[in-house]
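Subject: Sanity check before I submit

Could someone independently write out the structure tokens for this chain? I want to compare against mine line by line before I put it in a report. The sequence has 188 residues.
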Amino acid sequence: MNVRAFFALRVPERVTRKLADYADELCQFDRGLEAHWVDSSSYHLTLCFLGEVSLEQVEELEERTREALNAKRFNVSLDHIGYYAVNPKLSVVAAMTSEQNEVDELHQSLVDIAIESGLDYDEKNFLPHITLARLPSDNQFELDTEQLPQLDLSLPADAIVLMQSRPGEQGSIYTPLFEIDLPLAMAN
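---
Independent answer below. Compare away.
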């Protein structure tokens, strides 16, 4: 049996509430664009989308992640909302970060773990993000990017979660498959 899976960070309630408020503001610009707004209870920061994964590979991913991941806890700053093309047919409206050094390093570590676990990872130009809405790639809001809300939010990168994604009636349903706490950074 295979599952659709991805690595993510959980989004705390305080950040979820603020992002939901921003999404509500953006809904007024959704004029027949076929945008599907994500329920705020499903918000997460996608670090690495894996696609179809066997249950054996899930076990391998957990073992390798526990052994190989050496990232320490840090804070992720979310500073803007933008468009992100997931593939030629689908784009997302997402909360994103401009300062991504630690996020990029964590993403690359997870990609390396996925490849070492036998997955065929090929997400080119992936950007870690929190999806607020999904829409066809040829649709965009009638709004300059300068009019999109600027964010000043932060969330902790304190645990990595491998999530299963499956379709539901009101959007995707996410189920954690395993979670690994990141250790605290040692003070110098």
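---
OP: Matches mine. For the report I'm noting this point. The domain at 2-177 is CATH 3.90.1140.10 (Cyclic Phosphodiesterase; Chain: A,).
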